[in-house]
Design a protein that fits this description.
The complex is a heterodimer. By secondary structure, chain A is α/β, with parallel strands linked by helices. Chain A has two domains: 117 residues, Rossmann fold (3-Layer(aba) Sandwich), CATH 3.40.50; 70 residues, no CATH class. Chain A is 26% helix and 23% strand. Chain A contains seven helices and nine strands. In chain A, the strands form three sheets. Chain A has a four-stranded parallel β-sheet with strand order 3-2-4-5, with helices on both faces. Chain A has a three-stranded antiparallel β-sheet with strand order 1-6-7. In chain A, strands 8-9 form a two-stranded antiparallel sheet. Chain A is elongated, with a radius of gyration of 22 Å. The relative contact order of chain A is 0.12. By secondary structure, chain B is α/β, with parallel strands linked by helices. Chain B has one domain: Alpha-Beta Barrel (TIM Barrel). In chain B, strand 6, helix 7 and strand 7 form a beta-alpha-beta unit. In chain B, helix 6 crosses helix 7 and helix 8 packs antiparallel against helix 9. In chain B, 51% of the residues are buried. Classes of the chains: A alpha/beta, B alpha/beta. Chains A and B meet through loops of A and helix 5 and helix 6 of B.
């Protein structure tokens, strides 16, 4: 899933303080799962903002909505009939949802209420970590199912570097060395000899380096 | 064996001499004297001098320019090049730039992560890794081609080196990793600073068992401690460094004013012992901001005078 983190309330207030009618829009997908921008967080943020504006003596009307998905035309359309009531939307969706909202409601200011962090998974309750950087050419088959691009601080395809110490990365004792994980699993799979195959120079054109990306599937287009 | 490049370092190693290299860190400023003075101190005691490339990710005068200063002094430089800061265009371009000054040695490295340096908020590049940089230099030199396939007019003639750290984890792949670098085309290795000699000897033995010592020239890396504080710092704070307790204890066991001398003693003793290790073909003396001690270390280790090869 896409993992996001709530923005500090001060930053949110600074973005929306000059508006009178505000819609806080949550998203029922990834940001709900990672507890940053679902219905619950929309409610908490709305209460906090109401309290803040009341203390400031400002009259600000705040409504709440949580859409099934903000990265989908169909669900975003659900607020078309009332979007004009608002001076601004505070979206708690990931960066994709915020942008889709802005594209759809061109004349309504939209502000992000979360920082979109990465594509990852919940290791345990309250702990999420990165697993994929969408490089566009998956090599997990060669690296024992552990991604050196998203999990090695240097994205080394032929690691580990000289900084790997006791299974941890040189940048933090709290971070596993991806190459240690790869080697442990290669061993488990009885494939340690594969370590000596040199991974060729990567084609990064399918990654961010190649410019904004698009997938077009003629077979599923209408 | 015949040489493949005009590198003096390659010639010395090929002739069967124990090579001696050292390194100079460029300054955090643009005064060329910071490099030329250090180089002058050690020029007669070493065969080539590495110039580090923004080591520990701290911004410094560039390695290539510093190498050119050495070249102008008639000293043989080794261009250290990390893949952290440049993409494949910049790497190839700098290799050609170095080749245009007839710089004949290159050391291919990953580079420390930028969070250790003065720009922790900066991007890193890692378009290719150190293994692939070795391949790139060999392609440019041996086939006269760019990575894109086009032909290079006057290809670089560089003796290709890399680092090896026998002390990083996991230990069991440290020899396979050396084998991998050899397969990528590396011709000489400068190791991480050796303080745990037993572990180094084990690594070297495993490398010899695979015959790797016959495929690459291995220069054992040594760094003298200036103080007990430095020994402790290296032990606890530098990633991938293995400083045994007894070495720290030995440094701490002498009075402060004698610690520098003790550091040199340990370094010389290490070299003496390492000389006897099968597969060790020379020494890389990294006297960090202590270049003036290199001549003494070289002389006391019986590595002076250097072979006269012109």
């Amino acid at each position: 899933m896409i993992v996001a983190e709530k923005k500090p309330i001060e930053e949110i207030i600074d973005q929306v303080k000059d508006f009178q009618k505000l819609l806080i829009a949550g998203c029922n997908e990834c940001v709900t799962v990672c507890e940053a921008g679902g219905k619950k967080e929309v409610g908490i943020l709305a209460s906090a903002l109401r309290m803040y504006f009341m203390n400031e003596g400002k009259k600000v009307e705040i409504d709440e909505v949580t859409l099934e998905r903000q990265c989908d035309h169909e669900y975003l359309e659900e607020i078309r009939d009332r979007i004009d009531k608002y001076d601004a939307v505070l979206s708690l969706a990931c960066g994709v949802g915020v942008q889709f909202m802005a594209e759809k409601y061109f004349s309504t200011p939209v502000f992000p209420g979360v920082n979109t962090c990465f594509m990852g998974a919940a290791e345990e309750r309250g702990v999420w970590s990165e697993r994929c950087q969408a490089c566009g050419q998956c090599i997990l088959g060669e690296t024992a199912g552990i991604c050196p691009i998203s999990r090695c601080a240097k994205r080394l395809l032929n690691g580990p570097c000289g900084g790997s110490t006791k299974g941890k990365c040189e940048i933090s004792k709290d971070l596993d060395c991806a190459w240690q994980l790869i080697l442990d699993r290669l061993k488990e799979l009885d494939r340690l000899d594969d370590y000596e195959k040199i991974m060729p120079i990567k084609d990064w054109s399918t990654e961010r380096a190649g410019g904004p990306r698009k997938v077009v599937r003629e077979d599923v287009r209408l | 064996m015949s040489t493949k490049t005009p590198s003096k370092l390659e010639e010395i190693l090929t002739a069967g001499h124990l090579a001696v290299t050292s390194e100079c860190g460029p300054p955090r400023g643009s005064d060329p004297e910071d490099i030329t003075k250090k180089a002058e101190m050690i020029r007669n005691h070493v065969d080539a001098i590495n110039i580090t490339d923004n080591q520990t990710s701290v911004t410094r005068l560039c390695s290539l320019a510093a190498c050119v200063h050495l070249k102008m002094m008639g000293i043989e430089p080794t261009l250290q090049m990390v893949v952290r800061d440049r993409n494949r265009i910049a790497l190839q371009s700098d290799i050609l730039g170095a080749a245009s000054f007839d710089i004949h040695n290159i050391l291919c490295l990953s580079g420390d992560h930028q969070q250790f340096g003065d720009c922790p908020k900066g991007q890193n590049v890692f378009d290719i890794d150190s293994m692939q940089l070795i391949q790139t230099v060999r392609l440019m030199r041996d086939e006269g081609k760019f990575l894109g396939g086009d032909e290079i007019k006057r290809p670089p003639q560089m003796f290709v080196g890399a680092a090896a750290n026998p002390f990083a984890d996991p230990f069991e792949i440290r020899v396979p990793r050396l084998a991998k670098k050899i397969a990528a085309g590396v011709e000489f290795i400068q190791t991480q600073c050796i303080y745990n000699l037993d572990k180094f000897e084990l690594w070297m033995k495993l490398a010899c068992d695979r015959g790797l010592h016959e495929k690459v020239y291995i220069l054992a890396g040594v760094t003298p401690f200036k103080s007990a504080g430095m020994a402790k710092y290296m032990k606890n704070r530098v990633p991938g460094m293995d400083v045994p307790d007894e070495v720290v204890k030995r440094m701490s066991g002498v009075p402060k004013e004698k610690q520098a001398e003790e550091g040199i003693n340990i370094c010389v003793e290490s070299i003496q012992r390492l000389k006897e290790v099968e597969g060790v073909r020379g020494f890389h003396i990294m006297a960090i901001e202590w270049e003036e001690k290199v001549p003494e270390i070289v002389e006391r280790s019986g590595l002076y005078p250097r072979p006269d090869i012109s």
